[in-house]
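Quick one, probably user error.
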């Protein structure tokens, strides 16, 4: 079971989580926890502030003290020492950053994972309150061995045996999400949303089913904040789920689908507040979903003689970026056009300029990407649907798997395009 940050926001939330775990006692449940809601964003902000010489962890401490204070004194007292120790370590780390005015990717990974470490210890207190024995586990303690790609690491294959050894017989382990340890013992995060990845990896290593508890009912046919009549997707196959995660879904994390797909094990995405059937991700299932991404940029690189170098560079950015897909929309012998996230676009553009081959770079920002995932629709049909609504498109291409049509529009048109396509294709 995996519980996201919104599932452990208040004492009532934590107790609800404990009851869900308790209801599955006979199934020997294993739980993966994210940081308390909003804490990871706060940690990122404080890390950035520390580089300018100041930081404030009081809001983070106050949030966790409030959760701690709701426990009986007999449970709270022994936990306080551990929470105080972690908060002191956080302050010391930020103090070092403020003194040096910089930090390495490894230091950043250490800072942003204090949320999971604090959450797991506090959750163990609530488990004790409910009469359950649990064991907090962190990174390699749970068998999560990673490479050293800080910020977007991958779990190494040898972790399967380690997980079975360290977690298989542990009575109700509470595993910290988001990170593992590399072979040098350093904390390495797996990308935002990677608690899902750890949960599905542990499930695949142990050969058991995986349930991801979210603040939504499951995967919807579109973002319900954009499309009010979006419907629940009851079944979706692994490959379509991967594509959906790649092109904008906030419910899924692409890496999380792969361990389950490799072992043929199901993943269920369901509501934390109202657990139900939700969405089943498995080997079979058909679904059509409209997803979207904001802050997209289109880059044209022209008149160059290093296309192979550029292609290699794009592949590298596509594999190391946790959030930004790199989508080639046109390529010829000496020029290439592609779209990606604005942050990634800036890095790619700077790298291209450093190649020193008279590369002409044109970049257009302020765009959005709308994806028709799992569609049998052809590009001309999609173009006509948007044209009728006077929505201009900068590019329409099929994804590499040909499971999706990817449409680049002005950012101001992205939500309207999402609604139009949903209403026409999924009435």
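Nope, works fine. Designed sequence:
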């Amino acid at each position: 079971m995996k519980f996201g940050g919104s599932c452990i926001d208040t004492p009532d939330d934590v107790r609800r989580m404990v009851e869900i775990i308790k209801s599955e006692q006979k199934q020997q449940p294993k739980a993966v926890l994210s940081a308390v809601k909003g804490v990871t964003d706060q940690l990122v902000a404080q890390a950035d502030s520390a580089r300018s010489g100041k930081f404030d962890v009081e809001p983070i401490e106050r949030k966790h003290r409030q959760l701690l204070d709701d426990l009986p004194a007999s449970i709270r007292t022994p936990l306080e020492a551990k929470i105080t120790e972690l908060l002191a370590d956080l302050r010391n780390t930020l103090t070092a950053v403020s003194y040096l005015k910089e930090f390495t990717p490894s230091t950043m990974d250490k800072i942003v994972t204090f949320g999971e470490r604090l959450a797991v210890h506090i959750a163990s207190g609530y488990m004790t309150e409910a009469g359950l024995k649990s064991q907090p586990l962190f990174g390699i303690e749970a068998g999560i061995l990673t490479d050293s790609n800080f910020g977007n690491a991958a779990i190494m294959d040898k972790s399967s045996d380690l997980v079975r050894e360290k977690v298989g017989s542990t009575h109700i382990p509470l595993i910290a999400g988001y990170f593992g340890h590399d072979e040098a013992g350093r904390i390495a995060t797996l990308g935002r949303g990677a608690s899902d990845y750890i949960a599905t990896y542990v499930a695949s290593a142990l050969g058991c089913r995986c349930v991801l508890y979210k603040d939504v009912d499951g995967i919807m046919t579109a973002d319900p904040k954009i499309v009010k009549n979006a419907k629940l997707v009851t079944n979706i196959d692994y490959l379509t789920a991967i594509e959906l995660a790649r092109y904008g879904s906030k419910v899924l994390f692409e890496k999380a689908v792969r361990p389950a797909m490799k072992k043929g094990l199901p993943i269920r995405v369901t509501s934390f507040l109202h657990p139900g059937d939700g969405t089943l991700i498995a080997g079979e299932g058909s679904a059509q979903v409209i997803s979207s991404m904001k802050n997209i940029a289109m880059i044209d690189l022209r008149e160059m003689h290093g296309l192979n170098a550029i292609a290699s560079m794009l592949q590298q950015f596509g594999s190391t970026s946790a959030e930004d897909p790199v989508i080639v929309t046109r390529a010829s012998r000496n020029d290439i056009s592609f779209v990606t996230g604005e942050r990634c676009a800036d890095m790619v553009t700077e790298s291209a300029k450093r190649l020193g081959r008279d590369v002409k770079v044109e970049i257009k920002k302020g765009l959005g990407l709308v994806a028709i995932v799992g569609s049998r629709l052809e590009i001309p049909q999609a173009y006509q649907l948007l044209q009728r609504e006077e929505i201009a498109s900068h590019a329409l291409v099929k994804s590499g798997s040909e499971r999706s049509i990817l449409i680049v529009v002005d950012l101001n048109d992205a939500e309207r395009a999402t609604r139009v396509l949903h209403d026409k294709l999924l009435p």
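The domain at 289-425 is CATH 3.30.2130.10 (VC0802-like).
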